[in-house]
Amino acid sequence: MVVSDQLERLDRLPLRTNLRGLSPYGAPQLDVPILLNVNENTHGVPADVQAAITEAVAAAATGLNRYPDREFTELREALAEYLGHGLSPANIWAANGSNEVLQQILQAFGGPGRKALGFPPTYSMYPLLASGTDTEYVRGVRADDYGLDAASAAAQVRETGANIVFLCSPNNPTGTGLGLDVVEAVYEAGEASQAIVIVDEAYHEFAHDNTPSALTLLPGRERLIVSRTMSKAFALAGARLGYMAAAPEVTDAIRLVRLPYHLSAVTQATALAALSHREALMADVEDIKVQRDRIVTELLRMGLKPSASDSNYVFFGGLENPHGIWQGLLDAGVLIRDVGIPGHLRVTAGTERETTAFLEALEALLDGKTSQPA
Ligand SMILES: Cc1ncc(COP(=O)(O)O)c(C=O)c1O
Question: CA dist 368 to 222, 301, 326, 334, 372, Å?
């Protein structure tokens, strides 16, 4: 169905006013040999993790006539142990992907008459989660190089009187991490409006060594939330498990809006199995970082402008015809992401073979050895 038809049909429904004219999240899901477009873990689920999940899910299947542990206590214990930083299960909450965690935060702390501040370009779901909960989404500004410093971010929090602030670190799509000074300044600036400050660390495991996490800032800051996911480093995008760490009173607030038994027994068993077999997964993270750094080096050699990346993807500029390059790569069997920023594209780090295929196809297009569709 054509999109305009769809919008017209929607318009005839008694849809909430703030949802009229919106499009759903829709990164293309195409059948292409090399998928480097949605920042998944390209290295797959290691064999020992697959075996552990299979065994755990088989055991969970025997009890599926019963509702799962509503408090997912064992999983919260395992996540607290994984995160460290002196966190206990009372600090941990989880849901079906960090998207659901973020939605629950907005359900509890956003809503009509409240504002959520984000700093585009940033994760495209923030405005959609805001509209879904009838929260006003305020678009903050970044520097020309897409950086965000403490003084500017704090001033924008004060000016907008935001109730919720999204800080994405490393930021999607630019890939660069935020200094903790920005988080501290935003938190302080949010004192007047009692802003909930969310640091979305979906890609933290891919950061360069010694990059501190906002988890270090949690003690004494009861309005701070650090959100994480098993979709990226843990290669479990298909399992849907996101989580967060915060003060126990924040997790209690989320309990007011969660659906009962929202985390299935199958999901809990899967996540627990992966957490207890994480060695091979973390080795893959190291290889992904090598491929990511290789992409940055090679793009620089090709005369392009990649941003510094602390994540499993690289955002790069310097393209005259990004859409033509995107299409040319797709024709060569490599799907990457056009995030709609002039002159730029974003690519996920693949396996060594996938990364080589991407780099070779890109160089051929730039050299004019293969033609770029208009
Ligand atoms: C910055 C950021 N946050 C959150 C998510 C949501 O991930 P999930 O719902 O799979 O945990 C993504 C997914 O791409 C992301 O890029």
Answer: 55, 16, 14, 17, 8
Q: Are 344 and 315 in contact (CB under 8 A)?
A: yes
Q: How far apart are CA 137 and CA 130, in angstroms?
A: 6
Quick check: CB of 237 below 6 Å from ligand 1?
Answer: yes
pLDDT in tens, 217-241: 999 999 999 999 999 999 999 999 9
DSSP letter for each residue of 12-26: TS---GGGTT-----
pLDDT at position 316: 98
**pLDDT tens for each residue of 67-120:** 999 999 999 999 999 999 999 999 999 999 999 999 999 999 999 999 999 999
- Residue closest to 179 by CA, chosen among 146, 158, 149: 149
Tens digits of residue pLDDT in 190-220: 999 999 999 999 999 999 988 899 999 999 9
In this structure, the strands spanning 334-335 and 242-245 are unpaired
Ligand 1: centre distance to CA 366 (Å): 31
- The residue behind tokens 């969660």 is 258
pLDDT tens digits, one per residue of 282-340: 999 999 999 999 999 999 999 999 999 999 999 999 999 999 999 999 999 999 999 99
CB 262 within 8 A of CB 95: yes
Q: Is 229 in the pocket of ligand 1 (CB under 6 A)?
A: yes
Contact 225, 102 (CB under 8 A): no
Q: Ligand 1 centroid vs 373 CA: distance in angstroms?
A: 31
What are the chain's domains? Answer: 16-46+280-366 (3.90.1150.10), 57-276 (3.40.640.10)
